[in-house]
Amino acid sequence: MTMNGEKMPAADDRPTIKVAAVSWPGVELEPVATPPDTGGGEKPGRSRRGRLLLAGGLTAAVLAAGVGVGAYAYAGDVPRGTTVLGTELGGRSRADAARALRAELERRAETLTAPLTVTVGEKKAELKPADVGLAIDVDATVAAAAAADAHAVSRLVGSRTVEPVVTVDSARLEAALRKAMGSQGREMTMPAIIWTGTTPKPVYPKPALTVDTAGATEAVTSGWLAARPVTVPLVEKWPATTREEVDRLVTELARPAVSAPVTLTTDGGSVTIPPAAIARSLRFSADEAGTLTPRVDVKRLRAALGGKLATLEVEPRDAGLTISGGKPKVVPSRAGRQVDAAALGPALLAVLPRSTGRSVSAELKPAAPELTEAALAELGIKERVSTFTTRFTGGLSSPRSQNIVQAAKDVDGTIVKPGETFSLNGHTGERGYDQGYQDAPTIVGGKLVPGVGGGVSQFTTTLFNATYYAGMQDVEHKPHSFYFSRYPAVIESTIYWPQLDFKFRNNTPHGVLIDTSYTSSTITVSIWSTKIYDSVKTEYGPRRNITQPKTVYLKPGPDCIAAAGSVGFAQDAYRVIKKDGKVIKREKFSWRYDPEPRFICAPEPGA
């Protein structure tokens, strides 16, 4: 036999082929067997070859059928049988699938843009999808539809539904849910250990009552797609450090730490660190997760020891600025020779739990200033960019006024580098008697009571406004629960160690100098830097939801502080920042003031 001019081998010359039996629905095949050699008879040979051809043909048919089904299933970029939102995208190219999906979204536009009813805790609110960035990412959804399926067989003979890829602005959604949550929620109380003299006092953690952002996001996106109301429960979120751990730190570290002095020995001599200095320098700080960690603040230790270390070391001095004649004047830096703070802190922390062997050794090392004149010059602090003044009564002799002035002195001359975040609590530390603060009225539990450091909120508000009108980024602040007419509504801030802080971030390319000054009735904070905005102004919305105060009678006594009371209200304030004649930023600040009761220090009439 020939094919295309070539001679094919005779049947007897072909190699033996082993063919496995193939089953196919509806077809039965005889087993293929090799007959005995009959000495050249032709029929058995033809029968064998026929069966081989039959089996081979069926095998080819099976393979051809599989290839055909596979080609059908995988035609286009998206496998057939694939649907998204009820729309068949299978068998299409990615571009065609994207067009089909966009057409489906157009048909659903009214539903997808309709406000979504969300119940947060016990309060209902409506969320506009566009306000929280809810949208379907068409390209990402098509890519997911085109992706290979792990269950290839089901794709050959079945179908699959692909969920659309939903995008959402998590920050805006969280803000909207928190607004809907309103007064139902509460902030987390971070664990802490604070000092009253040499007595450690635990601050026990309390959980926040808030929205589970991850779970809420999933619920909102699912509800949006299904066009059904969403319920977002409030959950408790606990700090990482427990009450038991706080007690353990008090028992095993804080109390033993101040039980006796510690001897510090250097190559230049020795000094004794008394318990009072240990208390001022032993800090217990909680991170964002609420993990409480002890450390020795060597800078505070040095300040607490005062002149004791002066005989052993020379403190380096950073280059600084003072305001003279309406202009910044450079104060030169100076190198020093100091105890190695990086080694001293951990070494001292290691011996504080002990009752014996309370001594540490430290090396005196050259200490360069952190900020030199050259580095200071590069910060570009050359002009006053904002200033703010508030007034107080009582003159400089009142404890409240002295607290305001003390906070101003603590902060005066501080330089905040570009990108740095300034924390008022972090800068002053605990504001106690040892730090020069006195008892004055503070708001605790919704009423005025005596408390150390009362009045520092006025300095906080003054500093907040100075940085606000300088265009600095607001990181953390909380307005008072009651409205005081001496402060601008909404744009004001309280402070309370250690739970409430005021923080701002220098979000400019230039350094910032905080300059403070005071008179017998005013406190002023000015921010010096390089001016980059034309103006920063505040626009107020109207007051709303005005509520009247109630009258509360209190037990007369030295701790009772009367108050005239004030109305409660809600209000919005907008920071409007202009540059090159255009508004480049408009930020909304909102707050709700509780009505301050009219407190009367007398028995209730008729009681």
UniProtKB/TrEMBL annotation:
Keywords: Membrane, Transmembrane, Transmembrane helix
Disordered: annotated span: 29-48
Domain YoaR-like putative peptidoglycan binding: 253-355
One Pfam family, short name: PG_binding_4
Organism: Micromonospora sediminicola
Bilayer-spanning residue ranges: 52-75
Keyword Membrane: yes
Keyword GTP-binding in record: no
Name of the featured protein: Vancomycin resistance protein YoaR, contains peptidoglycan-binding and VanW domains
